[in-house]
Specification:
The structure holds two protein chains of two kinds. Chain A is of the alpha/beta class. Chain A is built from nine helices and ten strands. In chain A, strand 1 and strand 2 form a beta hairpin. In chain A, helix 3 packs across helix 4, helix 4 crosses helix 5 and helix 5 packs parallel to helix 6. Classes of the chains: A alpha/beta, B mainly alpha.
C-alpha cells in the first residue's frame, strides 16, 4: 500500500476521470427550492471552488453529495455509486468523501487522537496501532502533532479546524468537501487552515470547496463555480472567472466582494 | 504637632465590615436579619434540645437490627457483612482502575495524599463515615464493628489494588474478561444472600437500598431505549414509547404499587406470581424509566446537530453514531437530572411498605413504637427523625457524587 491518501482500489484511476457527477439535481425545503437543475462533473484530482451569495444553495449542494441532505430529483453518482435510499450505499459514499464543516464539529468528549481514529477503527476496522500511527502522520501534516492528547475544547479555532481536516483524511477519502471551512475562524487563523488545504490540493486531492476566500479560489482552483438563486450561473477557470465574467449576476457579485 | 486632620479611627475587624455590608446594609436588611436570625436560632435550639436532651434514642438502639434488616435471621447476618465488604472492595477496585486510566491518559490529578486530596475525601465520605460511626455507637454487639472494619479494609485494599492493576494496559480479551468478572460479582453476591434468606424476606433499610439499587440498574437501559424509541423514525416504535411514557408518568407511583399488589392475580396464576419485593422493584423500574426517558430525551436534544452530521459524514453506522458520539454527550449533559431521579427513587422505596405490605424501614419505624416498652409515648417522632436522617445521608451523598462526576466528566471539554 502506498502512503498517499488515495485508496488502493478506485473506479476512477487517472486524473480527470469523473468522481462526482450531479445530473439535473433538484432540492426543496418545503416549498422553497434550494437547488434548481444542478449539473456538475468533478474529475479526479480536480479542485472546484464554489462561490456565491449566501442562501444561493452552495452548502446544500455539497451536503447532497454525501447525503446530509436528500435530493428530490436528478442523479448523484460518487465514485461509481449512485446515491439512493439504500443506507449501505450512503455509508459507502460517506467513507469515500470527507467533509469539513464551518463549525468544525469535533467530538468534544473525545481526545484529538480519538477524534481522528474513531472512524477508521469503527468503519474500516483498522487496528488501533495502525490507526494511531496514521493519525500521527496526519497531525504532522496539519502541523499540530503535539496536540494529540488534548481535547478539542483546549485548542484554538484554527487548530480545531486542522484536526477536523485530519479526522476526515484518516478515512483516506477520495474526495474532500469543504463547507465554508474558514468562516467561523478569527482572521489570524484563516491562513493556517488555508495553507493545509493548499497543501492538500497540491498533493492531488479531489476537492470541492465552498468558500468566500477569493484569494484561495484564484490560487488553487482548477475551476470556479458561481451559484446564485439555487442555480449554477457560471463555471470557468479562475482567470476567466475573475478577469472576464460573462453573466450579469456574476459581475454584480464580484463587484460587491472585490 | 497640629491636629487639623481628623484622627484616623481604628478600622473595625473584617467580620464587622462583612456583617455591615451583607446583613445590616439598610434598615429593612437589619430587620430581616434580626427576625430570621432569631427564628433560625430558635429552631436550631429546639432541634438540638430534642436531638441531644429530650429524645429517647433508646428505641432506635434497641431496634437497630430491625430497622436495618428487619427479621433477617441473625445466623445469616455475616452473609450481609461479607456481601457488603466484597461490594465495597469491588467499588474501590473500580475507582482505582478508573483513576489509573485517567493518570495514564494524563487527565487526572495526582494520586498522592496531599492536604487537598484529604480535604476532598473528607467532603466526599465524611458524612457517610460519621453516620456509620453513629450507628456503630448505638450497637451493643461486635458484629457490626467487624462488618464495618471489613468494609473499610476492603474499600482501601480494592482502591490500592485497582490503582496498581490499572497501571498496565491489558490485551482486549483480558480486559473484557475482567469487566465481565466484575459485573458477575454482584450477581454472585445476590445468589449468596438469597441462598440464606429469600428476596421476599429482605426487610428494613436493607430492602430500601436493595430496591433502589435494583431499580436504578434496571431502569437505566429501559429509560435510554424509551428515549431513543420516542425519537425513532418508525411510527410504531415511536407511538409505543410515547404511550408508555405518558401513561406511566400520568399515574401516581403509590397507585401503581397498590395495583401491583392486587391486580397481578388477573394475569398470572398465584402459584407463579412474583413476590412482593419483585413486584415493588418492577414498579420502581417501570416508573423511573418513564421519567428517565424524558430526561435522556432532553439530553439528546441538547447535543448539537453538527455532531450527528460529523459522525454521518465519516461513514459511521447509525449504531456507532448513537453509541459513541451522541449518547455519551447526551447522558453527560443531564447527569444532575438523572441523579435527581435516582434520589427520588431511593426515597420513594418507602412507599413500598404501605403499598405492598413490605416491612421496609418506614414500616419498621412505625411498628416498633407499638412495642410493649415504647407504646403510647409518641416515640414515632424519634423513629421518623432517624429514618429521615438515614435517607438524607444517602440522598446527599448521591447528590455530592453527581456533582463530582459532572466536574470530572467536564474535563477538557468546556
Amino acid at each position: 500500500m502506498t502512503d498517499t491518501d488515495q485508496p488502493a482500489f478506485t473506479d476512477a484511476t487517472r486524473a480527470g476521470d469523473p468522481v462526482i457527477e450531479l445530473e439535473h439535481v433538484d432540492k426543496f425545503f418545503g416549498t422553497f427550492q434550494a437547488l434548481k437543475d444542478i449539473n456538475l462533473k468533478v474529475g479526479l484530482q480536480e479542485v472546484v471552488v464554489v462561490i456565491g451569495p449566501s442562501g444561493s444553495g452552495k452548502s446544500t449542494m455539497i451536503r447532497c453529495i454525501n447525503r446530509l441532505e436528500e435530493h428530490d430529483a436528478g442523479r448523484i453518482v460518487v465514485d461509481g455509486i449512485e446515491l439512493t435510499a439504500d443506507i449501505r450505499n450512503i455509508q459507502e459514499v460517506r467513507r469515500e468523501t470527507g467533509m469539513v464543516f464551518q463549525q468544525f464539529n469535533l467530538f468534544p468528549h473525545l481526545s484529538v487522537m480519538d477524534n481522528i481514529t474513531l472512524a477508521p477503527r469503527q468503519a474500516r476496522r483498522i487496528p488501533k496501532k495502525q490507526a494511531e500511527q496514521h493519525a500521527m502522520e496526519l497531525l504532522e501534516r496539519v502541523q499540530i502533532p503535539e496536540q494529540a492528547r488534548k481535547y478539542p475544547g483546549q485548542l484554538s479555532g484554527g487548530q480545531q479546524q486542522r484536526v477536523a481536516i485530519a479526522r476526515s483524511l484518516a478515512m483516506r477519502p477520495k474526495v474532500m468537501l469543504f463547507d465554508e471551512p474558514t468562516s467561523a475562524l478569527d482572521p489570524e487563523m484563516i491562513g493556517e487552515v488555508l495553507d493545509v488545504m493548499k497543501d492538500l490540493a497540491r498533493g492531488g486531492m479531489t476537492m470541492i470547496v465552498v468558500t468566500h476566500e477569493m484569494g484561495f479560489a484564484r490560487e488553487v482552483a482548477d475551476r470556479v463555480v458561481f451559484m446564485a438563486d439555487a442555480e449554477i450561473v457560471e463555471v470557468g477557470t479562475p482567470e476567466h472567472f475573475f478577469l472576464d465574467p460573462q453573466e450579469a449576476r456574476t459581475k454584480l457579485f464580484l463587484s460587491q466582494i472585490l | 504637632m497640629t491636629t487639623t486632620t481628623a484622627r484616623p479611627t481604628a478600622a473595625p475587624p473584617p467580620a464587622v465590615i462583612w456583617a455591615r455590608r451583607h446583613l445590616f446594609r439598610t434598615p429593612l436588611d437589619a430587620a430581616l436579619t434580626v427576625i430570621f436570625g432569631a427564628l433560625a436560632l430558635y429552631v436550631a435550639f429546639r432541634l438540638a434540645r430534642f436531638v441531644l436532651v429530650t429524645a429517647r434514642w433508646d428505641i432506635i438502639a434497641t431496634n437497630l437490627k430491625l430497622l436495618m434488616v428487619g427479621n433477617w435471621d441473625t445466623v445469616h447476618l455475616p452473609r450481609i457483612a461479607i456481601a457488603l465488604a466484597v461490594l465495597t472492595t469491588l467499588g474501590g477496585l473500580i475507582a482505582g482502575l478508573i483513576h489509573a486510566r485517567q493518570v495514564r491518559r494524563g487527565t487526572a490529578v495526582g494520586m498522592k495524599l496531599s492536604p487537598r486530596r484529604i480535604g476532598d475525601l473528607t467532603r466526599r465520605f465524611g458524612l457517610l463515615v460519621a453516620t456509620v460511626l453513629l450507628l456503630l455507637a448505638l450497637t451493643t454487639t461486635t458484629g457490626p464493628w467487624v462488618m464495618m472494619a471489613g468494609v473499610a479494609v476492603g474499600g482501601v485494599l480494592g482502591r490500592v489494588v485497582g490503582g496498581w492493576l490499572g497501571r498496565r494496559r491489558y490485551r482486549r480479551s483480558v480486559a473484557v474478561a475482567g469487566v465481565l468478572a466484575m459485573a458477575l460479582v454482584p450477581v454472585a453476591l445476590y445468589r449468596y444472600l438469597v441462598d440464606a434468606v429469600p428476596l421476599a424476606e429482605w426487610e428494613g433499610f436493607f430492602f430500601n437500598i436493595t430496591a433502589a439499587m435494583a431499580g436504578i440498574i434496571l431502569c437505566f437501559p429501559l429509560g435510554v431505549l424509551l428515549a431513543l424509541g420516542r425519537r425513532s423514525k418508525l411510527p410504531l416504535l415511536r407511538t409505543m414509547a410515547t404511550v408508555y411514557i405518558e401513561i406511566v408518568r400520568g399515574s401516581p407511583l403509590f397507585v401503581l404499587l397498590l395495583l401491583a399488589n392486587v391486580s397481578l392475580e388477573f394475569f398470572v396464576p398465584p402459584s407463579i406470581a412474583p413476590s412482593k419485593t419483585v413486584r415493588a422493584i418492577v414498579v420502581f423500574t417501570i416508573f423511573t424509566a418513564a421519567y428517565l426517558a424524558e430526561i435522556v430525551r432532553g439530553g439528546l436534544q441538547s447535543v448539537p446537530r453538527g455532531q450527528e452530521e460529523a459522525a454521518k459524514s465519516l461513514g459511521l453506522s447509525p449504531l456507532t453514531q448513537m453509541s459513541r458520539i451522541v449518547l455519551p454527550q447526551a447522558l453527560r449533559n443531564v447527569i444532575p437530572a438523572q441523579i435527581g431521579q435516582f434520589i427520588s427513587l431511593f426515597k420513594d422505596t418507602t412507599l413500598a411498605g404501605l403499598g405492598l405490605g413490605i416491612l421496609d424501614m418506614l414500616t419498621v419505624s412505625d411498628a416498633i413504637t407499638q412495642q410493649p416498652g415504647f407504646v403510647g409515648q409518641r416515640l414515632i417522632i424519634e423513629t421518623l427523625t432517624f429514618t429521615a436522617f438515614l435517607f438524607w445521608v444517602g440522598s446527599f451523598t448521591m447528590s455530592r457524587e453527581s456533582q463530582r462526576l459532572e466536574r470530572k466528566l467536564g474535563v477538557g471539554t468546556r
